[in-house]
Amino acid sequence: MSELIKKLNWRYATKRMNGQTVPQEKLDNILEAIKLAPSSVGLQPYNVVVVEDKELKDKIFHEAASRQAQIPDASHLLIFAAWEKLTSQHVEDYIKLIASTRNVSIESLAGFHSSINGGILSRGEDVNFDWAARQAYIALGHGLVAAATEEVDATPMEGFDAAKLDEILGLREKGLRSVVILTLGYRDHEKDPLVNAKKVRRAHDELFISI
């Protein structure tokens, strides 16, 4: 069994955390993995809000997160927030970033620029928001795997009032809408009822279909 598979068997959706702080180096590695996640055309149409402040975590717990126990005892909350509206400025900024990063001319990227404008930008706002949210979930997956390799517990969460969370964090003013939360911290061995539970997954031949 590879080391990665061992780590993934170790991880689970932690239900109770003990309040211990995740070291900065481990947090940085998790955030870097999220940054390196793939996204459609490489655009990364989302932002990740990192919340460490205890008062803010408590406010989210009481007002937006359905009092899910992981929220106040987590070391950090990562809120994945999709761009509410994809704009031509987003695309232009991305093209400039490619040009500067790869040391190529903006003119050489004209065809790629045009394909994004004609494909993604031509779609409706609701379609693009759903697309952006799916890209954020890919980054979430990277974060979960990275947390496991760092032996940091992580729980993805959807059961929250997105509109209220957006209000608390001022996301709509930034053109963002929250789509999923990832709590980071360490499992409470005494309070978490699932800490020693076996992982339940469908059998290999039931999950995968070979054609």
TrEMBL record:
Could you tell me the keywords of this UniProt record? Flavoprotein, FMN, NADP, Oxidoreductase
Q: Coiled-coil ranges per the record?
A: none
Per its UniProt record, the required cofactor names are: FMN
Family assignment from sequence similarity: Belongs to the nitroreductase family.
Where is each Nitroreductase domain found? Answer: 10-186
Its recorded name reads Nitroreductase
* InterPro entries named in the record: NfsB-like (IPR033878), Nitroreductase (IPR029479), Nitroreductase-like (IPR000415)
Superkingdom as given in the UniProt entry: Bacteria
Pfam families per the record? Nitroreductase (PF00881)
